[in-house]
Amino acid sequence: MYVPLLLTDFLDRAVKLYGDKTAVIDDDKVVTYFELNERVNRLSHGLKELGVEKGDRVAILAPNTLEMLEGFYGAFQLGAVTVPLNIRLKPNDYLFILNHSETKVLFVDWELYELIGPVRDLLHVEQIIVHGGGNIKLEENDLNYDKWLAQFPAKPFDRAEMDERDIASLLYTSGTTGDPKGVMLTHRNNYIQALQVMHHLRVSDQDVLLHVLPMFHVNGWGSIFYYTSNGATQVMLRKTRPNIIFEKLQKHGVTIMHMAPTVLNSLLQYYDENNLEISKSQNVRIVIGGSAPPITFITKVEDEMGWEFIQIYGMTETSPLTLTSIIRAQHLDEPKEVQYRMKSKAGYQMSLTEVKVVNENGEEVAPNGQEIGELVIRSNGVMEGYWKNEKATKEVIRNGWFHTGDMGVVDSDGNIEIVDRKKDVIISGGENISSIEVENTLYEHPAVVEAAVISIPHEKWGETPHAVVVVRDSETVTEEEIIAFARERLARYKAPTSVSFVEELPKTGSGKIQKAHLRNEFWKSKEKMVN
């Protein structure tokens, strides 16, 4: 008998087996899985009354909170599509995403409510509902979430008829073009991803997850499925501040955290500066996504702090995780320094996933750690495509394989190491930044005649945007003025952190700016052009 793989299954299992167990701790809010399910049912009834139907988009702009987590399950019961929004964007970014996705209902946290104000008159959303905030003044027709939710019954919701191929979420990610692209992930994509990841990360009902990674990231919100299914306790985190993370880690007996390398770096610095004492018996696992931290970080994490370091690799377009660096049985007798070197790589393919590194002819590169090729992926996690962008979809999914644009080498044990990027996307602190978007902004400055934005190494963020600018003959401008100009028009993390001025930019015969030539100067002291 065919039974579709639907994301609502995960909460159903938790309610059945762990109903009276603590599900979520969100500061002073503590709910069991029974209580979480009741809140989800109220939310589904409320969305139905607002006219939300199967396939409608429901957006969520919030930090990691109980309300954000329950928002996913509440929307899924109607067969609606969730649109998690990056909390670090500018109002115009939200305007594009919300209108491009044709979002019907927007949930927004009270602390972020002001970001919607400048563009609300241009939004096509039908209803805005505000999480928390007590007595903050709302615009006419906007609703207070708690008061609105309380109107509806906690009784089971009559779910929409759904298929596992139905779209569950639209996650907007920056690419090599200015406008972000909406990645369409199905229930099946995320369901099978959850099964494979819970296996590799050894998720169990004894786990306590601290949601460090933002749930608007696919690896952040995707984690709610496999931790929920296993009845784990999920601790919310509004601000990724080291002192708060360590406080919650100890207070709630946290056993696992997902985070970007930059957050790990901040934790290590805080640990050293405050001479913290950490109980190694807590058996904490930290899952690091993005560029691998230096081996010295891994050594400190494992030898000094007693945590287990797990490096993973993935992309939003692949649901996301595809590689892991967990040491395999045949390497357990290797010296620690050899194991740590393995852990610093992107790793080997997870179950239910096929990953290759291929040359320009589509042939697999030799496993010698030298020959460079592009990572391509085939799995049940690969997206259905980009929302309303068939051209971009065909560019990355070819012959059944997703082409990542990341360049890597393969060692003799099959471990993949990322060494460069084919695309010009800058990944700073785990955030994707389109260099073209930044360049287009710089071109608005009257003194800028040409601009190229590249990634350069950065101790804290891994890499950061750097602008190389050609100034008009009749104009003068300083580095500080260029940076300030960009920060006024872009999310702060997208703006260049440094600027250099040149008389002309290197170009190909066809006039295309050769960014690789610009990057080489900044990365020549590094072993590879990714940090």
Question: What is shown here, in short?
Answer:
The protein is of the alpha/beta class and 531 residues long.
The level of helicity is 25-40%
Distance between the termini: 49 Å
Task: Give, in spatial order, the strands making up the sheet with the most strands.
Answer: 2-1-11-10-12-13-14-15-16
Mean pLDDT over the full residue set: 92
> DSSP helix count?
16
- Name of the CATH superfamily of the domain at 8-259: ANL, N-terminal domain
CATH class of the domain at 8-259: Alpha Beta
What does it look like?
The chain has a nine-stranded mixed beta sheet, sandwiched between helices. Strands 4-3-5-6-7 form a five-stranded parallel beta sheet, with helices on both faces. Strand 21 (401-410) and strand 22 form a beta hairpin. Helix 1 (8-18) runs parallel beside helix 8 (223-229), helix 6 (187-200) crosses helix 8 and helix 9 packs across helix 10. Among the domains are: 8-259, ANL, N-terminal domain (Rossmann fold), CATH 3.40.50; 425-523, ANL, C-terminal domain (GMP Synthetase, Chain A, domain 3). It is of the alpha/beta class and 531 residues long. It is 29% helix and 26% strand. It is built from 16 helices and 27 strands.
List the helices and strands and how they pair.
Blueprint: H1 8-18, E1 22-26, E2 29-32, H2 33-49, E3 57-61, H3 66-76, E4 81-84, H4 91-100, E5 103-109, E6 127-131, E7 143-144, H5 145-149, E8 167-173, E9 181-186, H6 187-200, E10 208-210, H7 218-221, H8 223-229, E11 233-235, H9 242-251, E12 256-259, H10 261-273, E13 285-289, H11 295-304, E14 308-314, E15 321-324, H12 336-343, E16 348-349, E17 353-358, E18 373-379, E19 385-386, H13 390-396, E20 397-398, E21 401-410, E22 416-421, E23 425-428, E24 431-434, H14 435-442, E25 448-458, E26 462-471, H15 479-489, E27 498-501, H16 515-523
Parallel strand pairs: 1-11, 3-4, 3-5, 5-6, 6-7, 10-11, 10-12, 12-13, 13-14, 26-27
Antiparallel strand pairs: 1-2, 8-9, 9-19, 14-15, 15-16, 17-18, 18-21, 20-21, 21-22, 23-24, 25-26
Helix pairs in contact: 1-8, 2-3, 6-8, 9-10
